[in-house]
Amino acid sequence: MKKAVVVLSGGLDSTTCMGIAKEQGYDLYPITFQYGQRHDREVEQARKIGQYYKVKDHRFVDISFLNQIGGSALTDQSIEVPTEGEGDEIPATYVPARNMIFLALASAYAEVIGAEAIYIGVSAVDYSGYPDCRPEFIESMNKTVQLATKAGATGNTLKIETPLIDLTKSETVKEGLRLEVPYHLTTSCYLGDEEACGKCDSCQLRIKGFKEANSKDPIPYQIPIEWF
Question: Domain of 88: which CATH number?
């Protein structure tokens, strides 16, 4: 059976990618990174999601040294988590070079297990200010993977797949609901509490996505939400 590595954060987008890759006939091999983020909840939820899909192997890779570099509200406790919503500037939650590092390591894992694809849940529509979510970046990384790997050098297929790149959050939610993705196991809140804060930028975007999809988010929030 063909194999796909899925960069699984425990969030809504990456979990939707799991559902898409499964529907497309791939055997799922998720890889989750501990990159020095503010909390471990997303790693814990990623583990539960892997168990839900009954994956054969789920790799947890510790690259927590990224918090020594900092530069992001997600890896530096001294930088405040934004709550002002989407803007025109690159958000404080951008982690320098994160997706480039993730994809490089995912490519290495894909080579080892003989995978044909790497799925990552980037979107150029919502939070398009992230430079490592742009189609140009993914295109460049695809070329780099072909040049830098044994798979590419020997003519074997290894491609980065970004099925959500042109979707809004509501379109992603609709696709996940169609695939019966376990959204109740996902987490998006930057603060990492058992109940989502409902105020940080990530929570706001998630709530907006479910509302526009005319669906109630199955995770609990600390504040009351009117869904309909």
Answer: 3.40.50.620
Residue 223 included in any domain: no
Question: Is 77 a member of any domain?
Answer: yes
CA distance 181 to 143: 31
Tokens of 58: 């789920």
Q: For residue 33, what are the domain limits?
A: 3-212
Taking a C-beta distance cutoff of 8 angstroms, is the pair 15, 181 a contact?
Answer: yes
Query: Is the residue at 40 inside a domain?
Result: yes
Quote the strand ranges of the chain, DSSP E.
3-7, 27-34, 59-62, 117-119, 159-161
pLDDT by residue, tens only, the chain of 228 residues: 899 999 999 999 999 999 999 999 999 999 999 999 988 999 999 999 999 999 999 999 999 999 999 999 999 988 988 887 666 678 898 899 999 999 999 999 999 999 999 999 999 986 557 899 999 999 999 999 999 998 888 888 899 999 999 999 999 999 999 999 999 999 999 999 999 999 999 999 999 999 999 999 999 999 999 998
Q: How many CB atoms lie within 10 A of CB 2?
A: 13
